[in-house]
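Hello,

Following up on my earlier ticket. Below are the two sequence lines again, exactly as submitted.
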Amino acid sequence: MKAEKAPKLEKVKTYSIITLVLVIIGSAISFWVANRIDYYTAELVHTEEVLQSTDKLYATILERETSIRGYLLTGNEDFLKNYENSKTKGREVFNHILNLTEDNPVQQNYLQELNIFIKQRLDVFERSKEYYKINKSLNGFLNNDKVEDAVNGHLAIKNLIDQINAEEERLLIERNEILINNIKALPIIVGLISFFSILMGALTLFSIFHYNRASKINDQKIKNYQETLKEKIELLNESNNELKQFAYIASHDLQEPLRKITSFSDLLKEQFDEKLEGEGKHYMERITASANRMRQLITDLLEYSRAGRDSMESIKMINLEDILDSVLDDLEISIKEKDAKIKYENLPVIEGKETELRQVFQNLISNSLKFSQAALAPEITITASNAPLELIEKYSQLDQSINYYLIKVVDNGIGFDQDYADTIFTIFQRLHGKSEFEGTGIGLSITRKIIEKNNGLILAEGKPEIGATFTIILPKP
Amino acid sequence: MKTKKSIQILIAEDDDDDKLLIIKAFQKTLSKENITCVNDGEELINYLNKTSNSENSLFPVPDIILLDLNMPRKDGKTTLQELKSHEIFRKIPVIIFTTSSLNEDIQMTYKMGTNSFITKPGNFKDLVKITQEINNYWSNTVILPNKI
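Thanks for your patience. The regenerated structure is below:
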């Protein structure tokens, strides 16, 4: 099948996130612009109000001047009432403007100045009013300077109000421009953001579609792999069974000619013993010895092929201390012969087959007894603990999700070079000459086969002349 | 150590070497005339059909049969089944004499009616011992049925 490169799910995620961010930014900008429009509209209304108020203020000032002039000319008290009214109204309007332009220092300055001029004018009005009340005329009060002051004062007030109005009008124009700009920009901004959001959305949809298609193809591929794997496993199982059968049948068939070699050698020796002499006899012995050794090898091979095979024996909970008790019973003679000390306590209960576990410890202890140092009584210690997690993590064949026991068999024997730690478990591999130590080298390989069959692991550590440590890792029941 | 009463033995064995060894071993206690050999189950049945009780018969009636399991043409199990379902031949004791030590072979042949199951030993000395024991047991210890 043609491999289609699957877009990574990451890409789809990135597109979606970008789309989301764009939508959020777009909304924020739109909201901000709308707020600005709102703000400047309010500001425009505000400016209009200031302008209206300044007009009102000027009107009160004019009214005040007209009223005081009327009073001073006619002496009619009604004019005074008007004057007082416009004074109060003027103050109110002035304060209102002061409040409206609170945020504008330029206007505040103008207003301070205006206030001074208004006060000066008012001061003159008050004094002329008092003078008139007493003298019933302004004769002796007015002079050329005072008239000039009055004209100048009024002009200054009018100028200042014009300046305030000019400033507000400038603001009005400025704000109006900003407002128009904002109103114009809004559809462009919203349009752009919408465009990019839609683009990103489309891109996301496209990659999701592409991803789905690719994963469908991948699913199919995985299915095919699974089928191939299943077939391979079946083939493997078949050949594994054939191999088991082969080892078994081969061992049986191999025994046949061997039995004959031995038997005919026996017969030869029996019938022609007197005729054989010297080398002839020696050769006969060699033939017999070789045949015997071969028989041992075949027997061991048979035992190895049987080890860990699905036997009828049931799996049950087994106390390792009981196993060791019986193993030590079986090995009593060689333990006494070697004057060996074997210590063990607090060994756990393990799930397994009794025969197998017994074989494991029998092999390990026999091994330690066999490879003891000539001048040193063997000491063998068997301990158990919980296997630390870091150790389990080191071996991929162990299940990381379950707990294991760590069982150690430590001896003070002749040990071995660490380089051979793996070799000692291989069938028929020996580290020592046959003349030094008997045996075919089958014990440890059977041990390993059983341990691995029980989902465990066995490791060997050795130091020449110091001793060996066998570490068994087995699942907790 | 020749026994007073000689038994007649019929051996069904296809392997010439084994045949030679077994005969050699039996000859330690029995004379040549007491031992007869056939090559397979087919020959065994043919032989039994030709037997007669007359003196100096070419086909003497056997007291016991030694039957190998692995044989060409008709193997030991089929032969055993035929013998044990035969009206007359079923009373002749059969000893399975084979290289096999498989549990299923042992269980099956006993179920089919064999009288003994012996695995061929690995050397000649043991073979001689076994033949002596067979001879002693079937000629002295047990009382055999009437010859057919």
